Amino acid sequence: MSAPPVRTLADLDGDVLAHCAGYLGARDVASLAMACRPLRAAAYCDAVWYRLFRDQWPFEKVPCDALGLRELYIHRHTEIHQMKFGDPISALYYLDPAGTTPSHVMMDRNSIWFCQGPAAKKLNIDLPETEIVETHRNHSARITCLRLFPLIDTPLFRSDTQKNEKALVTSSTDRTIRLCWKGYSRCYKGHSAPVTALADRLLMDGESKLLASGGEDCTIRLWSMSTRAKNHPLIATFHGHEKALSFLSVAWHKSSLLVSCSKDSKVKVWDTVSPSSGSSSCVGSAHLNSNGPPIAMKCHESLCYIAAGAEVTAIDLRTMKKASVLALQNHRILSCEMMPSEWLICTGTKDRALLWDIRKAQELPNTVAEMQSSGPVTLLHLDQYKVVTGVPSDGQVHVWETRTGHSLNTLGCGEPSRLGVRSRVSAMAVDGCRIAMAGSSPEGCMLHYRDFATASAPVVSLPGKEKEVSRFWRPQEFDDSEEEDSKASWNNQTR
């Protein structure tokens, strides 16, 4: 008796496949479309994308005669991430007026982390009930760096229920490093001068994870995150730099390699497997020909990109040779964001932001976009949808389209001042379609949060002419007629 024929998923009826795809999320449906033609046809079915659209935006109307619901979904998803709307959920939170201006803003899911002098605070943004749920006052001086690491990689991890939690690590001018989580604090002492840099990731080292720090004492120190090294966490001290450390980054192609950059524009690579104190662990060194201190550093695959002076230099970590140099003519770099996976680098200068395509040869015009500014661009964000630029004294941030440099929106920090004095922006953090801005105004220090996920009214007025928001954490209120007009306007534009 012959065996029954082998059947595969692609042998199922198209309607059955489309029904199965209806249980998947947008990312899984997109992955399904890349498998084969029958699955692609099922993944592109309008019924599937209608369900995804309704799940993502339940209160948004879908045109009755809309064709190509997948394209409609992608179009709306893109516009939301480009913040092209004037009615985001917007909330303004005023901080303790006795505190210093917030800095080092980071977003993690439904929380905003920020620093005020020596204190680190966590603001829960589960609207409408929002409050500061954690305050860590473990440092005696200004915080210089803030990092969030998965709790599972720290000695604070206890059960699988905590696998999505993150622990806070801060460094300070008081020469210490603190690991904090929900009231718990662990201190790392060893630097003889202010700590100026923390590695962007934890180093892999067998059973344990290592934290790297650098300071004004020109040393790099490795700290064990294991509970077995609780009493003696300092693993090694690296010497070799002659000035204070500016940046530390873990190499992508090998997680045991640590890349350091100091204010003297020297770049070094350290092998942290069985490290030994001193300079013997240094496996590579290079010097940047720049006329200014490092501004930013980012590792991608086997390359390390460093912005300093008027240049962005790519160094091959395998040979420590310069792979490419992006030179700005007569423009000193004040801020820099890099997206090497998309071949894009954005630099902020005294009066503009410049977006570069790093695939093009140096002798060819490789500027993608040029975004004008009213002052020095020291606040910068870059992703595949948008560029966000900020001038601290301007009190606003500007949103631009990544591929074209077209202006999309202007967002103010705080309420329009009744005294005629503009607010200032001290820091910002962008996460997808959400943005948090920290700053100060005549009314005091503040955090301004916006979420464009459910926005529906396209920006039609002049940038910056937004409605005033409440000083309390709650969405803006609109009457029904305004909401219906906004939805109708958006629907007409997407037909």
Automatic annotation (TrEMBL):
Q: Region entry Disordered: which residue ranges? A: 466-495
Where composition is biased (Basic and acidic residues), the residues are 466-477
Q: Which PROSITE patterns match?
A: WD_REPEATS_2 (PS50082), WD_REPEATS_REGION (PS50294)
Sequence ranges of the WD repeats: 188-233, 238-271
The UniProt keyword set, sorted, is:
Repeat, WD repeat
Superkingdom of origin organism:
Eukaryota
State the SUPFAM superfamilies in the record: F-box domain, WD40 repeat-like
The name of this protein is F-box family protein
Gene this chain is encoded by: LOC100275548
